[in-house]
Amino acid sequence: MQRIENYIDGKLVAPISEQYLDNVEPATGKVYSLIPDSNAADVELAVAAAKKAFPAWSTCGNMERSKVLLRISALIEQNLDAFALAESIDNGKPVKLAATVDIPRAVDNFHFFATAIEHFASESHFMEKTAVNYTLRRPIGVVGCISPWNLPLYLFSWKIAPALAAGNCVIAKPSEITPMTAYLLSKICIEAGLPAGVLNIVHGLGGSAGQAIVEHKEIKAISFTGGTATGKKLAATAAPMFKKLSLELGGKNANIIFDDCDLDNALKTTLHSSFANQGQICLCGSRIFVQKGIYEKFKTAFVEKVKSLKIGDPSTEVNIGAVVSKAHQEKVLGYIQLAKEEGGTVLCGGDIFHPTDERCKDGYFIYPTVIENLAHDCRTNQEEIFGPVVSITPFDTADEALMMANSTEYGLACSIWTNDLNKAHRCAEQMETGIVWVNCWLLRDLRTPFGGVKSSGVGREGGWEALRFFTEAKNVCIKY
Ligand code: NDP
To answer: Checking phi first, is residue 221 left (phi over 0); if not, alpha (psi -120 to 50) or beta?
Structure first.
């Protein structure tokens, strides 16, 4: 059986404990590889390697760092098919999604930050007839990057690329549930000539390897994407140590669909925003609010489209693959049960999908599910489900839609559908989210700030925001 290895000090190494965890393929329910069960001792080695690498990496110049990162980007692109297949096997997502979204985005992340660093400039502030201030932005040192299982390489590279571009050395941990593409990335880094110790990938459980990264006193900043409960725990450990923290957490995103929208476009995109990656994208819209004038028409057409989605073996041409694990399947099914208890009517789906083919008969599948008749403030409509489950609710006025949309503790993203420009601007301004899409979803420009408000996180990623996070600002004031 294939063994994944840690990537420490430029080498692929076994965990010190020599203990491994099972890595399960969600589509089959079978163990197909082994993951290092790393702990604080492995993190210690990684930190020592990173500290040794930091002086040279942080001073070799932006152009030098850029060249290495561009080589990494190009090598991932050259191996796109292998990466996409690995991501699909590891996560359960359709291989086509991995080949068109996840892996191209990882290629772009390295490319974007490799070039961004060449244009990164710091501010200067002139004081009339007195002095000039300039801001020095220097890399922080050794930083930690911790990422979740839903978009494994996509989110892993979204953190690592700016951290490295800015001149830091990194200790990174992918989710133990989806470690494979991070392992493939470590091989690419060796091939690309990334100096030893600049990036160290430590695999293992959140509670041991992850916690050891957060607790390590030499790791000065933590960039984390994951659940809100984990984020809270992380902050409790890191805040008293005064670490810089960027937290991208959970969401319960709303789609607000007005009578005057382009209905075909709203339908097509809402299908995608509800069920892409089996609904396991932090940006997926899990609550659909539709204005009363088009509610019945939208609902009927939407449910019909949902029923036509093809579910099954993610290595084949399907729209919906497997959810990431047995535990997650049970969690999502538990929420469907809760929705029924809360008075919801299941319009379609609502159960396990059993593939007929032998290969996937023990995989973790769920029918895409649409639920109606739920109060906006019930648990199903307030808590993050993170699966192929959406609720649909009618509304009268924009104020009512905004009240319901803003009623959760989360505030990551939303989509507004209208052809009335004034209404779009007014709603965008009043939504309590870090991201608002109007007449679209998941349209991303990597220069824009990315992140959530309320329990969806603290800080922003993307563009200059990420490069600012991964640098320390120092003001130099020169009087003349
Ligand atoms: P988790 O919070 O369970 O895990 C995220 C990462 O943190 C994993 O690598 C995990 O390791 C690690 N971890 C767990 N406990 C600790 C700890 N005590 N110290 C350090 N690290 C720890 O999230 P999921 O992987 O389940 O991801 C799904 C969540 O991520 C959803 O809530 C989703 O909304 C959110 N998310 C947010 C995004 C955003 O941009 N705002 C984007 C994508 C997802 P291990 O897997 O080994 O437990």
So the answer is: beta
Residues 370 and 235 in one domain: no
Asked if residue 297 is part of any domain, the answer here is yes
Per-residue pLDDT reduced to its tens digit, 107-144: 999 999 999 999 999 999 999 999 999 999 999 999 99
Containing structural domain, residue 131: 2-249+456-479
**List of residues 6+ apart from 320 with CB closer than 8 A:** 94, 275, 278, 309, 310, 311, 312, 365, 368, 388
- Does ligand 1 lie within 6 Å of residue 435's CB atom? no
Q: Which residues are catalytic?
A: 248, 282
Residue-level pLDDT at 461: 97
As for how many domains the chain has, the answer is 2
Q: Are residues 216 and 271 in the same domain?
A: no
Q: Which pLDDT score, from 0 to 100, does residue 218 have?
A: 98
- Cα(283) to ligand 1 centroid in Å equals 15
pLDDT of residue 21: 98
Q: What is the DSSP letter of 353?
A: -
388-433 pLDDT tens trace: 999 999 999 999 999 999 999 999 999 999 999 999 999 999 999 9
CATH number of residue 296's parent domain: 3.40.309.10
Q: Are residues 210 and 259 in the same domain?
A: no
Q: Which of 230, 233, 323 to mutate to test the pocket of ligand 1 (most atoms within 8 A of CB)?
A: 230
Instruction: For residues 173 and 271, state if they share a domain.
Output: no
Query: Which residue in this structure is represented by tokens 């503790």?
Result: 409
Please report the atom of ligand 1 found closest to the CA of residue 412: 41
Q: Which two tokens stand for residue 26?
A: 């969600």
Cβ(363)–Cβ(26) below 8 Å: yes
What's the confidence (pLDDT) of residue 170? Answer: 99
CB 148 less than 6 A from any atom of ligand 1? yes
- Alpha-carbon dihedral 222, 184, 207, 22, rounded to 10 degrees: 170
Q: What is the mean pLDDT of the chain?
A: 98
Cα(251) to centroid of ligand 1, in Å? Answer: 12
Q: Which of 175, 232, 248, 408 to mutate to test the pocket of ligand 1 (most atoms within 8 A of CB)?
A: 175
Q: Are residues 53 and 181 in the same domain?
A: yes
CATH number, domain containing residue 225: 3.40.605.10
